[in-house]
Amino acid sequence: MTDTYKRAVFVAPEQIRFDDVPIPEPGLHQALVKVQACALCTWEQRTYSGEEKFYPLAGGHEVSGVLVKLGERVYTDAKVGDRVMAATLNRCGYCESCRRGMDNICDNARKPLRDDIPDVPGPGGLAEYVLLDDYQLYRASNDVSFEEICLSEPLACVIRSVRKSGVQRADNAVVVGAGIMGMLHVTLLKQMGVRVIVSEIDGTRAAFAKKYGADDVINPTDAPFADQVMQLTNGRGADVVYCAVSVAAAVEQAVEAVAKGGRVHVYARIHPKGSKISIDPNPFHNKEIVLTGTVSQTKEDVLEAVRMISGRLVDLKPFISLTLPFTRLEEALQRAMQPDTYRVIVTM
């Protein structure tokens, strides 16, 4: 009799099915990981709520676990029994984007890349096992908790964001939004010697941001956003504004608050899809500002994130709000959507 494992599948708004599926055998260039922890990103939250309607979906992409089996031709420093991070993003390695160093936006990221692709699309980390291609496997420290290791994925996304934004030591940076992704920006920016202003309308999150690194915190509903930023930067404006909220108006306000030669960086995906912004194009000419953004992470970013967490170069424990068992996944998703949480993690 074939051994099976449980896998969660989003099938409709607020409906999750638990399947029993056969435990796969890794191919030549694959690895089998027994999942130990999976964090609930906003993608899973939006799918569960019905804001994003892509069903069925095997969600879960912030994943850590134990390496249990390796294919014959997997070249890795990880050994069976090691703690690992599973980077579930597909990267074909052959398309033009991958070959130009942008494997985070691989042209084939959402296409099946293997003959043994499961019957349900998705990263599949909300399960007791996950099958990886060799490039998706990253060895982590066996002395670090699985809950911290699974946050390598969001940390890697922010590493890419900070890297591409071109921020420099002693710059003035504004982070719009003090959710977990905003706070990860704050954490990395402070390590770099950047002065960080956080914009947040929720009082509890504003206090949290001040406690964990923000030099100043503003509320954009108290006074015009740009006026407050100008006041805190001696009239110069922000060298970089990171939009870490899914609100189109935040981008418009950021353009008004950026310094000459500065950058407005769209980190969060704007919702609802199809949202438009209306901005005066002249500041791009007169002030030589740049509007840019990032999505996901490259393999280099993932490696850096895993090393940071494994080497205890960053403390992510304050951002873990709640841990619940896999059997209480729906409760975990409901809690994750509450404004008083940062990351909710399910453990297997």
If you had to describe this structure to a student in words, what would you say it looks like?
With 348 residues, this protein is of the alpha/beta class. It folds into two domains: 4-151 and 316-347, Medium-chain alcohol dehydrogenases, catalytic domain (Quinone Oxidoreductase, Chain A, domain 1, Alpha-Beta Complex), CATH 3.90.180; 158-293, NAD(P)-binding Rossmann-like Domain (Rossmann fold, 3-Layer(aba) Sandwich), CATH 3.40.50. 27% of the residues lie in helices and 26% in strands. Strands 3, 4, 5, 6, 7, 14 and 15 form a seven-stranded mixed sheet that branches. Helix 4 crosses helix 5 and helix 7 (225-232) packs parallel to helix 8 (248-257). The longest helix has 14 residues, at 152-165.
The counted number of beta strands is 15
- Could you say how many structural domains there are in total? 2
Low-pLDDT stretches are none
Alpha carbon gap, first and last residue: 23 Å
The percent range for strand residues is: 25-35%
CATH homologous superfamily label of the largest domain:
Medium-chain alcohol dehydrogenases, catalytic domain
CATH topology of the largest domain: Quinone Oxidoreductase, Chain A, domain 1
**What is the N-to-C succession of helices and strands?**
EEEHEEHEEHHEHEHEHEHEHEHEHE
Major pleated sheet:
7 strands, mixed
